[in-house]
Structures are given as C-alpha cells and as structure tokens.
Design goal:
This protein is of the alpha+beta class. It has a domain at 1-100 and 117-152. The chain has helices at residues 135-141, 175-181, 186-195, 203-216, and strands at residues 36-42, 47-55, 60-64, 69-71, 78-83, 86-91, 94-100, 106-115, 119-122, 125-127, 154-165, 168-171. The strands form 2 sheets. Strands 4-3-2-1-5-6-7-8-11-12 form a 10-stranded antiparallel β-sheet. Strands 9-10 form a two-stranded antiparallel sheet. Strand 3 (60-64) and strand 4 (69-71) form a beta hairpin. Helix 2 (175-181) runs antiparallel to helix 3 (186-195). It starts with 35 loop residues before the first strand and ends with a helix. Residues 1-25 and 124-132 have low confidence and may be disordered.
C-alpha cells in the first residue's frame, strides 16, 4: 500500500503546480537538490517507499504522490526516514538529520532565514511586511511546497549542530559549547579544534570532532 493512501500522513491537501524532478530549478528551501526515493520506517516497523525531501521553511518531511506535494502530518508515528545514505529522526514536530551515531549521537537541525524584499509604500519608503508575496502568503497558497520560490526571495541557511546527551538535545555550534557539554574533555577538545582548525561551518569538521570525543569516551 502506498504511503500517500494513508490519511494519517496528510497535513495538507493542497495541490500545487507539478514540476518535473529534473527541471533545472534551485530549491534552496529543501535539504536535497531534488526529491529522492527513500523509505519511511514507522514505529510499528512498517516501511514505505516514497520520493522524499525535507522542507526547511515548514520543518516538514515532504513526499511527492505523483500529483502533488504532501507533508507527513504525524512525525511521532515515524521511527526513521532514510533518503539515500542520510537518516532523519523525528523530534517533536520536526526532523533532525543524524550525522553520527553513538552513545551521544550528533544531529543537524536545519533552520533557514528568509530575506523577503521590501515593497515601496510611497514617499521613498519601503516595508518588508507589506510584500505581496510574503512567506505567509506562500504557505497559505501552498507555494512554499513548490520547487522554486519567487526570484526575489533569498534563502539563508542556518545550521544547528546538536548532541543528544542524557535524553536532551544540546547545541554544539562552537568549541565553547562542546566544552560546556563535555567539561571533562576540555583539554582534548581545545587541542583537537586548534590542531585541526575546526570550522563549525563545515559539517565534516564537526563530525570529526564529535567522533574524536566519542572515541575518547570508550
């Protein structure tokens, strides 16, 4: 049975203009460059195959049912979403990407800022809140699910790294935050980040640091 048949998964029944997956558009408000075949594993153990992508503006896992883009409405019923080699874990109403498993797993939270162009309100003034194609209007009309935002929208990515420790998700976006979370490994963390010139804007660097921290705990 196909995933889109299950009503429990539908948060919206908005039909948007279909676009071919190979159309050369920039989908900066999605994690992946295109909708990709993946698997949704339910907590019950049932697996569903579907074309998937993660919408960072709505924090929803979106799937293409052949006619329209739909959102998984009940993340709490999902165990893991697998897209290619990537894994996404539901946390509250959104999904985090699992970057590194282990006793204190490392995750990435996708948060994007939208730079909406201001609209002139007369007398040489402009107001960003009066934009006729605001993010609110895109959500209302279902345009935020489409593959391309209006050309004058700018999507600015913001990545949060989080470690699940003692059942809580803690941010580790800097050396100081790593040390705060693992105070007993202060010297280890400082030496590693200095020696390796760890760049917290580089996902691979953060993964290497977390892997090193995990190894020292074994």
């Amino acid at each position: 049975m196909r995933l889109f048949v299950l009503i429990v998964f539908y948060s919206l029944s908005i039909s948007v203009k279909a676009q071919r997956d190979n159309r050369p558009v920039q989908i900066a408000h999605y994690v992946l460059d295109s909708f990709t075949m993946g698997k949704v594993k339910m907590r019950s153990g049932v697996l569903y195959d579907q074309k998937l992508n993660y919408n960072v503006l709505t924090n929803e896992m979106i799937f293409w049912d052949g006619k329209r883009y739909m959102a998984i409405a009940e993340p709490r019923d999902v165990d893991t979403v697998y897209i290619d080699t990537r894994k996404f874990i539901p946390v509250d109403a959104k999904f985090y990407e699992l970057l590194l498993a282990g006793p204190d797993p490392l995750f990435m939270e996708y948060v994007y800022k939208i730079d909406e162009p201001p609209v002139s309100v007369g007398y040489g003034n402009a107001s960003p809140t009066t934009n006729s194609t605001s993010l609110t209007s895109l959500v209302t009309t279902g345009g935020v699910y489409d593959l391309k935002l209006p050309d004058d929208f700018k999507v600015i990515p913001i990545y949060n790294y989080l470690v699940r420790k003692d059942g809580r998700y803690e941010k580790v976006n800097s050396t100081q935050q790593f040390i705060k979370l693992f105070p007993g490994k202060k010297k280890l963390i400082k030496e590693f980040t200095k020696t390796n010139n760890t760049n917290f804007s580089n996902k691979a660097d953060v993964i290497r640091l977390m892997h090193h921290v995990q190894l020292e705990g074994l």
